[in-house]
Specification:
The complex is a heterodimer of chains A (98) and B (388). Chain A has 98 residues and is α+β, with helices and mostly antiparallel strands. Helices cover 22% and strands 19% of the residues of chain A. Chain A has a five-stranded mixed β-sheet, covered by helices on one side. Chain A is globular and about 35 Å long. With 388 residues, chain B is mainly β. Helices cover 0% and strands 40% of the residues of chain B. In chain B, the strands form eight sheets. Chain B has a four-stranded antiparallel β-sheet, with no helix packed on it. The chains are: A alpha+beta (98), B mainly beta (388). Chains A and B meet through helix 1 and helix 2 of A and strand 6 of B.
């Protein structure tokens, strides 16, 4: 079971508290993680990846195992610690704008 | 007794203010969607419990929120398990999918170069008159979208954006936004829109095709001051009983048309400044209009630090200042284009919100004013529903 930590506003939008847990079918990549997240919580569609290009929104970052993986390709495999649930995958909104 | 429900969009959430017909004591509810910019909140004329809100942020983009109980609870349409399902069996969640029809192309950018058309946010919802599920959205970069399923999905009325002047449209400082939508209650095929900074447009076939309606507008700061498009129209307003008469607050000049926008004439008259953003029409007096002058395009605050609403009872040219209950010193707030509205009680109520977070209300046609609330976040929009 994959664990995902969402920023405050997206937790509110998805109406969840704390971590989100996902099961992935097939390969475990950032893209498949986001696909599963958006399928389970459709209100999050367009908030992490923009609708038109399906790319990460500029003021959103992805962290895994203490590393910023925002610029890794979306189809790159997730670290084992994320896949086995030992560590959560973080979706983080930029601290910007005051 | 009748009452009113004032719907306020601010930089940090939405607020709902309710009162009875006296409009003296108010209940303040909110913030809804705390922390998000709420560009517009508007109720359906077909069902007073149906309200749409544009929730937006630079971080997470556009969300469409809908209430079916007068603002008590909200949901993003099309995202619950009861809603439209796609091939994967899950709700399609398309309520924030504002996808331009075809290849969107480019428009003029601030520096004169061509810039790709990119969706940023919904500036204005205009619920239609026939059904609570029928609603239009004016967006940035300027385009008109329509939903017939309560906001669960949208399609672009692309005849507007694909007008042959489209490539010449240019953004104003706040973005290239379609901020005003007027629906003619006597003719379901007629729609008026206004875009900063392209101008005003009219459709006579339900949104399929459009024509610019800017003849008579004069904008001295653009290469051709009398151009077909390129005028920064801040707001247009119409009384439902006189759909051929339009009023406009432009980037300089208050204008009037009596032929559905085919031609305009200036009615700024004796205003202390003809620069401003909102304009609205008295519910029961089609020739009575309201504006809030600010000094200039360089200094967006009231002249002399006095917050004054101006009223004309002659459809323009002759204006009187309305000040009772409004601050007359050290006041440097602004009133944005979608932040003024009128109710339809017998004694017409007028409401406006400021960038300083105040909401002012008048229950007597503008003769006197009171602050409903003073310390909200900067107000982006104000609408009012008159409740039976």
């Amino acid at each position: 079971m994959i664990r995902v930590v969402l920023p405050h506003h997206l937790r509110t939008l998805a109406k969840v508290d704390g971590e989100v847990q996902l099961e992935l079918n097939g390969s475990a990549t950032v893209q498949s993680l986001l696909d599963a997240l958006e399928s389970k919580y459709p209100s999050l569609r367009g908030t992490i990846r923009d609708r038109a290009r399906q790319q990460r929104r500029p003021l959103v970052r992805f962290f895994a195992c203490g590393e910023d993986i925002s610029h890794e390709p979306l189809h790159a495999p997730l670290p084992d610690a994320i896949v086995n649930g030992a560590e959560p995958f973080f979706v983080i909104g930029a601290i910007a704008g005051g | 007794m009748s009452g009113v429900r004032v719907l306020v969009g601010t930089r940090k959430g939405a607020f709902i203010l309710t009162s009875d017909g006296k409009r003296k004591d108010w209940k303040i509810d909110g913030p809804h969607f705390a922390g998000w910019e709420i560009y517009h909140v508007k109720g359906s004329p077909a069902d007073q419990n149906r309200i749409y809100a544009s929730q937006t942020s630079d971080w997470f983009g556009q969300i469409v929120q809908r209430s079916d109980d007068g603002g008590k609870t909200w949901n993003t349409p099309g995202t619950s398990l009861d809603h439209i399902r796609g091939a994967d069996g899950f709700p399609t969640g398309k309520s924030n999918d504002f996808r331009y029809d075809g290849v969107p192309g480019t428009h003029q950018w601030y520096d004169g170069t061509q810039h790709p058309w990119e969706f940023k946010r919904v500036w204005h919802f205009e619920p239609a008159l026939d059904s609570p599920d029928h609603v239009y959205a004016g967006v940035e970069d300027a385009a008109l979208f329509e939903s017939t399923d309560g906001g669960a999905s949208w399609r672009e009325r692309s005849g507007l954006r694909k007008h042959d002047t489209g490539a010449k449209w240019q953004p104003g400082a706040g973005g290239m936004c379609l901020h005003s939508i007027l629906l003619d209650p006597t003719n379901e095929k007629r729609i008026f829109v206004a875009i900063s900074a392209a101008g005003a447009f009219r459709s006579d076939d339900g949104g399929e095709t459009w024509k610019p309606i800017n003849r008579g507008l004069h904008s001295q700061y653009i290469p051709d001051p009398n151009a077909e498009v390129g005028h920064c129209v801040h707001r247009i307003a119409m009384h439902p009983a006189r759909p051929n008469t339009l009023f406009m607050q432009k980037h300089w000049d208050v204008m009037r048309s009596d032929n559905a926008g085919d031609s305009w004439r200036e009615v700024s008259g004796n205003l202390p400044s003809d620069f401003g953003f909102p304009i609205d029409v008295h519910t029961h007096e089609p020739e009575t209009i309201y504006v809030v002058p600010i000094t200039s395009d360089s200094e967006h605050f009231p002249p002399d630090g006095k917050l004054r609403v101006y009223r004309s009872r002659t459809g323009g040219n002759d204006w009187e200042e309305l000040t009772r209950g409004l601050p007359q010193r050290d006041c440097y707030v602004n009133v944005l284009r979608d932040a003024m509205c009128v109710d339809s009680l017998d004694s017409c109520g007028i409401y406006f919100g400021t960038t300083g977070g105040q909401i002012y209300a008048s229950a007597d046609n503008g003769d006197t004013w009171n602050a409903i609330v003073r310390d909200l976040p900067a107000v982006l929009s104000v609408e009012v529903q008159t409740l039976p």
